[in-house]
Specification:
alpha+beta, Rossmann fold, Dna Ligase, domain 1, D-amino Acid Aminotransferase, Chain A, domain 1, 4 domains, nine-stranded antiparallel sheet, about 30% strand, globular, binds adenosine monophosphate, binds glycine
Length: about 425
């Protein structure tokens, strides 16, 4: 079959890498893609937020299946446009993608379904939001309602920080994402991510992962899109996973069906674990980046079968098969990320690292200049390996990094510290 993947990050390179290994995949096109995807697929320069353009391209190129990587095209309704044209698509409708694109929507779904989550209040008026914060006190969490590229959440340890966040959000610091806010109870505990393929009320968990959000070692420094991940996350025991499925995921899916907006795609649940209980922190309506990279490395070629089973509503009869192993990815980022950073520095040594089913360097922000791989973004490479133990995967990844010659890059040296 002919397959189109939308996106240009490490997440999409890892999806392409796994899908490409499946004999069902005849032609693979990535849009817009990056240097890593360009090496294993054709890249097409499409505006992936323009559903009409993606649809027309898919028809012209006889695309049988479209996999949507990032949240922005989902929130823009690209999946709706494709499905309306009869094109098989992996990813939720615009209405169902509100589970990520609107925090207030997700909270309302939790209320209706009984899924445990932080207590909250929803405001469109800054003065009322401030009064509520003064009444509740700190710690407290302030969230811009809409998509804010992972930056719309302020976990305030003191009241003034929360009040300042309200000022920022209503002043438009987060664009249109800030005109509405959700203010939440601060939840204590440890965080873990669960990934579940869903179609209507059918669902299939495909693994857990732990991300590292802060830029620097010791979980210090500014928040980023994620600096490294591993899978599975030992914190999410089989019992806790079952609890999350029964109390959070299934009730959410049932409520989405009841509302007439069934969810189809991967549901990425951020969970807070404390005293053997899990509560929902947030949903994302796509794979995590870099969490996807470790899931893809563990699942391999079957990923295409799983995504097809999801899109074709065959999850009830589908199983994922797991090797009893561990995967880790470490993000190499451009110096300065997540603040200002330079583009265009050369990266050497990648060709000395073999690509196997056990190790791969997934590309994120890369491009080629005169045949040379150069950095073209903040997060640039995801050095990824799989092994019998997390320690062995860790050692392998850090050994791979030694072979990469990129003085303009930096990476965390302590990915996996919690589990190791
Ligand atoms: P979100 O974008 O909703 O994932 O929030 C970003 C991060 O803020 C989460 O990964 C948590 O670490 C933290 N966070 C969000 N909501 C809460 C909450 N109610 N209590 C504690 N931490 C939270
Ligand atoms: N790594 C966090 C995310 O993809 O949202």
């Amino acid at each position: 079959m002919n397959i189109l993947i939308l996106g240009s990050g490490g997440r999409e390179h890892s999806l392409a890498w796994a899908i490409k290994q499946n004999p069902k995949c005849d032609r693979l096109i990535c849009a817009p893609g990056n240097a890593g995807m360009d090496a294993i697929a054709d890249c097409a320069d499409l505006d992936i937020l323009d559903g009409g353009e993606v649809r027309d391209f898919s028809v012209e190129n006889a695309i049988d299946f479209v996999v949507i990587g990032p949240e922005a095209p989902l929130a823009a309704g690209v999946a709706d446009k494709l499905r309306a044209a009869g094109i098989l698509t992996f990813g939720p409708s615009k209405a169902a993608a509100a589970l990520e694109s609107s925090k207030a929507f997700t909270k309302a779904v939790c209320d209706a379904s009984g899924a445990p989550t932080a207590a909250y209040a929803h405001f469109t008026d800054a003065a009322k939001a401030r009064a509520y914060i003064r009444q509740q006190g700190a710690p407290i969490v302030v969230k811009a309602d809409g998509l804010a590229a992972g930056k719309g959440v302020v976990v305030a340890t003191v009241e003034n920080e929360a009040l300042a966040a309200i000022d920022d959000m209503f002043a438009g610091t987060y664009g249109s994402a800030g005109g509405e806010v959700v203010i939440e109870e601060f939840m204590e505990g440890e965080e873990v991510s669960l990934f579940v393929l869903c179609n209507g009320e059918h669902c299939l968990p495909i693994g857990s992962a732990q991300d590292h959000k802060r830029a620097y070692d010791g979980d210090l420094g500014p928040n980023t899109g994620g600096m490294g991940a591993y899978s599975p996350a030992p914190l999410l025991t089989p019992e806790l996973e079952q609890q999350a499925m029964e109390r959070i995921i299934r009730p959410t899916l049932a409520e989405m069906v009841r509302r007439g907006t069934p969810y189809q795609g991967v549901l990425y649940a951020g969970l807070m674990i404390k005293d053997g209980q899990c509560r929902l922190v947030e949903y994302n309506t796509r794979f995590g980046d870099p969490e996807c990279q470790v899931l893809m490395m563990r699942l391999g070629a079957q990923v295409l079968d799983l995504l097809l089973a999801c899109a074709e509503d065959r999850l009830a009869e589908t199983r994922a098969s797991w090797a009893d192993d561990h995967a880790m990815t470490v993000v190499m980022a451009a110096r300065g990320y997540p603040g200002d950073y330079a583009k265009g520095s050369e990266i050497h040594g990648l060709d000395t690292l073999p690509s196997t089913s056990m190790q791969e360097v997934f590309h994120a922000g890369t491009t080629t200049r005169d045949g040379q791989i150069v950095a073209n973004g903040g997060r640039v490479l995801n050095v990824t390996a799989r092994a019998a133990s997390l320690q062995a995967a860790h050692d392998k990844v850090y050994q791979m990094i030694q072979a990469i010659d990129w003085p303009e890059g930096f990476w965390r040296k302590d990915i996996g510290w919690r589990a190791l």
